[in-house]
Amino acid sequence: MATANLLLFLVLIIAFIFTTATAALAPSLPPSTTTSLVAAILSTLGFQDLAAAAAAINLSAAIPATIFAPTDFSLLTCPSCSVPLLLQEHSLPGLYPIQFLRTLDFGTKIESLATNRCLTITASSSGFTTTRKVFINGVEITKPDLFYNGLLIIHGIQGFVSHLSPFSCRSTTSLDLPEQPPPMAAFSIMRLMLKDAMTMLRISGYSIVALAMRVKYSELADLKSMTLFAIDDESIFMEGGSGEGRGHAYVEELGFHIVPNRLLTAGGLMGLPIGTMLPTMKSGQNLVVTNAGGEGPLKPMRINYVKVKRYDVVHNNRIVVHVVPTPFPRLDHPVI
């Protein structure tokens, strides 16, 4: 076991050297820039109503996404519709180029950015796979891959549009089925969110954490959501008497730094009272809030007596990442 752990850590070191060298070349845009970018792209492509909606809901290009964009004329077919909501319902997390869409099974459902609302993908059965027409909820993609920059894909669609049904994630609209999306829809979204989080961590100075997540990818992909406490690369490799050289232990103990199936953003985390127990992916081992977040800068929030340095360094609709300077110690006694 010790040999395997050593080999894993050596692999992580090599990868760290490579990713650190390449991270400097990666573009880094502030949230305000990425938000306005989507609206600007839609406007340039001629989708003026969607552009206004993208600005209204702060739709960001910071995570990979695919937009099935109805024309302004198509939006007139639903005068009572909310265009901002339609935009979310016609947007998928992740990249879906036309050639990939053509390979999906007939009737594949994919959860959109609108919670519990799924788009149904169908394709014509005639002709070669590479030339099949693809339909989104019955509306044809008339301008496939209209925009594709590696982080955002926009397909133009034209036809009658309407809001998605609250039963759209079901395999049928029968009312006797459980009211939840099919498992494959939920899993595909989590996998996309994991890849997005790992990408953002790599380019933000947390490449070792991203690689540790990749090692445990199969376990993490089964979660519905998660809150992760990360350590930056510099702290993981730091040596010395301060104790921060223990960062390499973080890689092996990643599960102890993950709160599974709970999305605790900055507001939710800081609102937890002292003594709150947070279950981790290590069975029977919990984290404890030892300093509440609302006690001011002189008494910053601490979990297992470790200060939370930064909040929401990565945040998508399934994963949130906060920063701590050292691995969490285990507590022998509960906090009073």
Automatic annotation (TrEMBL):
Domain of life assignment: Eukaryota
PANTHER family xrefs: EXPRESSED PROTEIN, OS02G0491300 PROTEIN-RELATED
Annotated signal peptide: 1-23
Protein name: Fasciclin-like arabinogalactan protein 21
Record bears the keyword Plastid: no
Taxonomic lineage: Eukaryota, Viridiplantae, Streptophyta, Embryophyta, Tracheophyta
Keyword line: Signal
